[in-house]
Write a structure and sequence with these properties.
The complex is a heterodimer of chains A (1003) and B (144). Chain A has 1003 residues and is an alpha+beta fold. Helix content of chain A is 33%, strand content 24%. In chain A, the strands form twelve sheets. In chain A, strands 15, 17, 28, 29, 30, 33, 34 and 35 form an eight-stranded antiparallel β-sheet that branches. In chain A, strands 7-6-5-4-8-14 form a six-stranded mixed β-sheet, with helices on both faces. In chain A, strands 1, 20, 21, 43 and 44 form a five-stranded mixed β-sheet that branches. In chain A, β6, α1 and β7 form a beta-alpha-beta unit. Chain A starts with a strand and ends in a 9-residue tail after the last helix. Chain B has a two-stranded antiparallel ribbon with strand order 1-2. Classes of the chains: A alpha+beta (1003), B mainly alpha (144). Chains A and B meet through loops of A and α1 of B.
């Protein structure tokens, strides 16, 4: 471990809005006189299926809408509607004759909205179905506003018709697959005077919108487009080739558009049949937004009351403690940028497995949770626990304990800003004067890593109360053999066992050449995997963030005895099944699994190269024979067999397929082929074999840091100088260009020049680097505020338009301005922000690039190319560890963090999609700051550093003015978190420079 | 016409049906007694009476008239009584009424005798419960 480095450590806090109005119990004895009449949960039999076709310019204006209206499965009408302004007279004549010949109804867009959308979708309570509905619905709008509704804040409100009494459609983008869509409350009184006098209140009609993109992803476990969905579902009709979009309307194009609606309808029917197999009668399909929704629906079907409802009076202080112990999965590399022989293994369904091992199902169905002091027992357990104990399943049932430790060079997950990068979690040495809370599993892991148990200040054990009453048995996936009695069975175990069976059946089907059946079973087992993961972890960690325009007061509960009040614009609201105790126990136990494997590897004389949440690559030390390495690795993997909670005999810590030989692209199970890894940083690694000529055969590659770029070339136009992948790219988990980049990184390593990767054989990398995005949030649409200014609505870039974004190379831009190629006024707002209308071929799109501030067109020559963008991809630093800098290679070592202060944060992945495109947004990081007590200590630490190293030196290195530093030292101002980070970095640097052994504020 | 002012709109039959479904709280309503499914002819009835319980059942308007009329014969609210027993008593009366009405249906001719018997016994039970509720309310506070 390195020298002790002072750092600010961040932990999750539990924040409650101060002005949260508690429901006051009516003590008057009178029953609540207001009678709420709820909107119907399910739609009527009517279904409106719609699909839009648009132009290809920046506005992506509507040209035609094709639709079908059905009652049940009976077709009521189908037709085409057009936007009069966007269809030429010749095209209109074609539309008329086309519709007449095929008995289709031809309408204008306005008529379509009035006579179809509002009639069937609103008045008749029918379901509105489409594929990527937000895009289609936004094409129909005549204007778009930002929504301010409580649940729709930050979304869009679409006005479809000028009539003010018709409700707008509200859309709030959730992620790339899902959005909340509903009708706004009608701007009129719904209940008549008589009903209002009787105190009746009818819920607003919110409509029933079913986006098949969302529904299919939730149900089948991966993202689809309409073509791939139709193929998987084996629908009668398949998506046709459109030819060119945006051209003059032709019969073929109209056939294509009508066919799209038919395919959408057939996919809808097939998906509903799949959904019916689940038997989730209590949750209608339009309420399924993700696998987590499915998970919740299962729990609801078993009549399980969510913990926050069954125990609403659980102390907030204790919730704060629970949240403090919360860390995600471990993703680390131990051997950096060096080709290493590995055995790549992963835990079978890690989170459901630890849930079963720890017996957490009884907590899910419990009527509440009890807690008790468990300090003495925990001290004893931690002193005595050994690896052998961890091999006993009973030991894992004792892990529902949270522990306050006095860390002194103990190995714990530490969340901090390492280097200049954003906040990350690294398993590092931690010392602190203050008590820190961790799960017992983390404490045991620390003992395994460091050989000494952490000093325990306090421990709290949590036990499940008696099970809830009235729970109902349920059958998973409609399979009678998988009936679950919530009182007797472990849900997770049963789901994973069913998945195992389906996997077997899929393999068998594939062997027998029944590809369609195999694909169907594969997507089913994938869905079961996601179901198990979401019900065993995702829904318990769910926090929804509501953004506000102005800061709101919150009370933050953390490690200190008292809460503190602060302000934030992002308020976290717990999800329906929020259960932070389960979330933290599960991730803690998963980290213990990895720590156990690490310790076993060490005991067996082998190392490890990387780990990623549930997988670990065991590494062969130099000079060890391969057979010896495999035998030792087998001892590590087989050790976990005793913990297998499932009735089948599959290993819990299993050797992945990548370790086995390929024969003509087919896997030969059981025959090992030396597997190598090159790991750059967390989630940035490649696994490969070498052929007889020492050429790499890539088996798995991660595209972390590359995924947001559109592929510069595809499989068809790949360079011939790099051998084609030996296995399908989908099995490798990367695009062709990712494969080629990794290939060259491996070649550079083999040839002995790992810092210089030759990409000259990839000419497509000289194209401007493009990333696709959709203007799906107000912040993303605001990109085009200036561009849209003064343009009529039809010409504006609208919500949900697909766009391409590019980066500008400053040097190339200045040269272009000097040559007169670009007008100098593009620099008025800083560097231009370049966008272009979406084109599936980015090469065509670059000619339409414009600066979204000025609207000025930008030549392709000034744009950053793929080559420039990925120039240092192979050097990316792993700053959370020592020896992780750009050019560092070989083993990384743990840092030793001395926590000078603790700051509290909220959900870490808030608004990640916006940040992905807009860069890190300060207000997207939910920060509650530090506790006042901690701040006092921190100011003391700064003052001491200022005295030791001198104000000028500290100000210079922390890039603060002397005046700013004086203000801080005098405690006259609250530093922002960036300032704090800079100060701490400066002190770290000074400590190293001065080689001081003293540690400020320690004694 | 102004775009802000809504013209009178009674909707078409389908939308009136939809409104009725929304009023009844289900897409598949059915009269508990005669099986009528036309939502325009169906209403929500409080079997225990509005004063005692909010729970409703769906019955057709003819039977609703009948059931509400029978409710006029139920004992009035016991003064100062907050006991659940009184609520139970009115539930028993209400269920008895529904059985009495069902017994009059031609389709129930074979069960008429049984339904009438059960209804009368339920009414008797209701009166006993009301008596108990009255006794509870007349006792001084704290008395057992």
């Amino acid at each position: 471990m390195s020298n002790k480095i002072p750092m600010i450590v961040a932990v999750r806090g539990y924040a409650v809005p101060i002005d949260q109005k508690k429901k006051v119990k009516d003590t008057s004895g009178k029953p609540d006189s207001r009678k709420n009449r709820k909107a119907l949960k399910c739609p009527s039999d009517y279904v409106v299926v719609l699909d839009t076709e648009t132009g290809t310019d920046h506005a992506q204006h509507l040209r035609i809408v094709t639709h079908q209206v059905r009652k049940g499965i009976e077709l009521i009408e189908k037709g085409i509607s057009y936007e009069p302004g966007n269809v030429k007279p010749g095209e209109l004549a074609l539309l008329k004759s086309y519709c007449k010949q095929r008995s289709l109804i031809l309408r204008t867009k306005e008529e379509f909205i009035r006579d179809v959308v509002y009639r069937y979708g609103y008045k008749y309570g029918g379901q509105i179905v489409g594929f990527n509905l937000p895009f289609d619905l936004s094409r129909l709008a005549i204007s778009i506003f930002t929504s301010h509704g409580k649940d729709m804040r930050g979304g869009f409100s679409l006005e479809l018709l000028p009539e003010k009494w018709l409700p707008n459609i509200l859309i709030k983008h959730l992620n790339s697959r899902a959005a909340f869509i509903r009708f706004a409350a009608a701007p009129k009184v719904v209940d008549g005077r008589g009903m209002r006098k009787k105190q009746f209140k009818t819920d607003a009609k919110t409509g029933y919108f079913l986006d098949l993109r969302t529904f299919s992803a939730a149900l089948l476990g991966r993202a689809f487009n309409l073509a791939s969905l139709a193929t998987l579902l084996q629908t009668e009709h398949r998506k046709m080739d459109a030819g060119e979009h945006g051209e003059v309307l032709k019969t073929h194009y109209l056939d294509y558009a009508m066919n799209d609606t038919q395919v959408t309808w057939e996919c809808h029917v097939a998906l509903l049949a799949r959904y019916a197999e689940h038997g989730l009668t209590g949750t209608p399909p339009h309420r399924i937004y993700s696998e987590a929704s499915l998970g919740k629906a299962y729990l609801n079907e078993m009549a399980i009351t969510p913990w926050i409802k069954s125990q609403p009076d659980f102390p907030a202080e204790l919730l704060g403690t629970v949240m403090n112990t919360y860390y995600g999965g471990r993703a680390e590399i131990r051997i950096r940028r060096r080709m290493t022989r590995v055995l790549y293994s992963d835990y079978r369904s890690m989170y459901p497995s630890v849930c079963t091992l720890m017996g957490l199902w009884r907590y899910v169905i419990a009527s509440g949770i009890d807690h008790e002091d468990w300090t003495a027992e925990t001290r004893e357990l931690l002193d005595q626990v050994t690896l052998a104990d961890l091999q006993q399943p009973e030991c894992w049932k004792m892990l529902a304990v949270l522990v306050q430790v006095a860390p002194d060079a103990d190995i714990f997950p530490v969340r901090a800003v390492y280097g200049e990068a954003a906040r990350t979690i690294g398993l590092n040495g931690l010392s602190s004067d203050q008590g820190h809370w961790y799960t017992l599993a983390d404490c045991i892991a620390s003992k395994l890593h460091s050989g000494k148990p952490p000093v325990i200040l306090k421990a709290v054990r949590f036990t499940a109360k008696e099970p809830q009453k009235g729970l109902k048995p349920f059958i998973i996936g409609g399979d009678g053999a998988y009936r679950i009695d919530p009182y007797k069975d472990d849900f997770y175990r049963r789901v994973i066992e069913l998945r195992g069976q389906i996997q077997q059946a899929a393999k068998q089907a594939r062997k027998e050449g029944r590809t369609e059946e195999a694909n169907r079973l594969d997507s089913y087992q994938q869905m079961l995997k996601l179901l198990a993961n979401s019900t065993s972890y995702g829904i318990f960690a769910e926090m929804n963030v509501q953004s506000h325009d102005r800061p709101k007061g919150v009370r933050c509960y953390g490690m200190e005895e008292t809460a503190f009040e602060t302000g934030t614009r992002s308020i976290e609201e717990p999800g329906t099944h929020f259960h932070p105790l389960l979330a933290t126990l599960i991730t803690g136990a998963a980290r213990l699994m990895l720590a156990t494997a690490e310790k076993l590897a060490q005991d067996n004389g082998i190392g490890w190269a990387l780990c990623d949440t549930d997988s670990l690559a065991l590494a062969r030390p130099d000079g060890m024979a391969d057979d010896d390495f495999l035998a030792r690795s087998a001892r590590v993997t087989q050790w976990f067999d005793a913990l297998n909670p499932y009735s089948d005999n599959k290993p819990l810590f299993k050797i992945e397929d990548q370790n086995y030989r390929l024969d003509g692209g087919k896997l030969v199970l059981g025959e090992h082929e030396p597997l190598y890894v090159i790991a750059i940083s967390a989630k940035r690694y490649v696994l490969f074999n070498l052929d007889s000529e020492n050429r790499p055969i890539i088996r798995k590659a991660l595209a972390h840091g590359l995924g947001h770029w559109l592929p510069p070339y595809g499989q068809d136009d790949a360079p011939t100088s790099i051998p084609a992948p030996a296995i399908p790219l989908s099995d490798i988990g990367a695009d062709r260009w990712h494969h080629d980049l990794w290939y060259q990184i491996i070649v550079a390593e083999i040839e002995g020049h790992p810092d210089q990767v030759d990409l000259s054989m990839l000419p497509a990398l000289d194209r401007p680097a493009a990333s696709r995005y959709s203007a799906s949030t107000s912040a993303l649409l605001r990109w085009f505020e200036k561009f849209n200014e003064g343009r009529p609505y039809s010409e504006q870039v609208k919500a949900f338009n697909f766009m391409l974004s590019y980066q500008v190379s400053p040097t190339a831009l200045y040269a272009a301005i000097a040559d007169g190629e670009v007008d100098g006024n593009v620099l008025d707002n800083g560097l231009p922000s370049v966008a272009a209308p979406y084109d599936s071929n980015p090469v065509c799109a670059v000619s339409k690039c414009f600066d979204r501030h000025t609207g000025q067109s930008i030549p392709p020559s000034v744009l950053v190319t793929y080559r420039e963008a990925i120039a240092d991809y192979h050097l990316h630093s792993e700053s959370k560890f020592e020896n992780g800098d750009l050019f560092d290679r070989g083993p990384t070592t743990r840092r030793h963090v001395y926590a000078v202060n603790i700051e509290y944060i909220g959900k870490e992945a808030n608004r990640w999609e916006e940040q992905f495109f807009l860069g890190e947004a300060a207000d997207a990081q939910i920060e509650y700051g530090g506790h006042p007590e901690g701040k006092v200590k921190f100011f003391g630490f700064i003052s001491k550093a200022a005295k030791t190293f001198g104000m000028s030196e500290l100000a210079r290195l922390s890039r603060l003015s002397r005046q700013q530093l004086t203000t801080l030292v005098g405690e006259k101002a609250q530093p922002r978190s960036q300032t704090v980070a800079r100060l701490v970095c400066a002190i770290m640097e000074l400590e190293i420079l001065h080689g001081t052994k003293k540690r400020n504020g320690r004694k | 016409m102004s775009k802000n002012r809504r013209p009178p709109d009674y909707g078409d039959r389908e939308s009136r049906f939809r409104k009725a479904y929304e009023r009844l709280g289900t897409n598949t309503p059915r009269c508990l007694i005669c099986g009528q499914t036309n939502p325009l002819r169906l209403e929500l009835h409080h079997p225990a009476g509005k004063d005692f319980d909010d729970e409703t059942v769906i019955i057709c308007s003819n039977h609703h008239d009948d059931a509400s009329d029978w409710q006029h014969d139920h004992p009035p609210k016991v003064e100062g009584c907050n006991s659940i027993i009184e609520v139970l008593a009115h539930w028993v009366f209400g269920l008895g009424d529904l059985l009495k009405i069902a017994a009059e249906e031609p389709s129930a001719s074979e069960l008429k005798e049984l339904l009438t018997y059960v209804a009368s016994k339920l009414h008797m039970l209701g009166h006993i419960l009301i008596e108990i509720a009255r006794n509870i309310s007349s006792k001084p506070e704290g008395a057992i």
